[in-house]
Design a protein that fits this description.
With about 90 residues, the protein is mainly alpha-helical. It is about 65% helix and about 5% strand. The chain is built from 5 helices and 2 strands, in the order αααββαα. The longest helix has about 30 residues.
Length: about 90
């Protein structure tokens, strides 16, 4: 993963040079902008639309999970039953 990240910061001629140098000698974000430009058409899709849908979906799932799980936890937290202290304290 580190090699992939450092490779993305290298200019194209250094990337195609192989394993000659692990760290880039000149930092360049041209590769990242080329990927974002390639993902901005009808044939390949739109990166920012994908990102927005993913963030919206993550927000809905996390918010819904918090709501449902807090309602599910309310019952066991209020009911009095045998073994409640042992179940919630972690001791047997």
């Amino acid at each position: 993963m580190i090699y992939l990240f450092t490779g993305s910061l290298k200019p194209s001629d250094e990337v195609l040079g192989g394993l000659t140098g692990f760290l880039p000698t000149h930092l360049s974000c041209d590769n990242c902008s080329a990927v974002l430009d390639a993902l901005n058409s009808d044939s390949s899709g739109y990166f920012w639309r994908f990102m927005g849908i993913s963030l919206l979906l993550a927000f809905v799932v996390v918010t819904g999970g918090l709501f449902v799980n807090s309602m599910a936890a309310y019952g066991p937290s209020r009911l009095k039953w045998r073994g409640r202290q042992a179940a919630f304290s972690g001791r047997s």
